[in-house]
Amino acid sequence: MELTESLLMSDPEGTIDKMLHLRQLGIRFALDDFGTGYSSLAYLKSLPLDTLKIDIAFVKDLTLDMQATPIAATIIALAESLGLDVIAEGTETADQCRVLARLGCHVYQDYYFGKPAPAVEFARRNGASSPTAS
């Protein structure tokens, strides 16, 4: 389940309680758009998170803006030190993926790999059998 920083900061204690309950049911949590909201790093260590998602703002200019790379590197290092997975949003070029891989991020999300599609189209594109309704 993806949560935004602004949602978490609206009621941190209540949100943490709900997250802990859902975690007991096997739900995993990703903090979306990390670095663009108002969250406190103090809360980051107490949140039951599994993944940090690097916001597109820090990914789109990786190969153009010298300040974007150290910010992305810091987010990746922070996630790693907290035992969290990291996903880079907004990856649209092979160069961005190469820079992110060099920094330690190996999971990417966005149009470089394909645009959103219905399940049947996704399966066709990826050589999988068609999904069935359940």
Automatic annotation (TrEMBL):
Domain EAL, first and last residues per copy: 1-130
Pfam entry (one): EAL
SUPFAM superfamilies reported in the protein's UniProt record: EAL domain-like
Highest taxon above the source species: Bacteria
Gene3D superfamilies: EAL domain
Protein name: EAL domain-containing protein
UniProt cross-references to SMART domains, sorted A to Z: EAL
One Gene Ontology MF term: cyclic-guanylate-specific phosphodiesterase activity
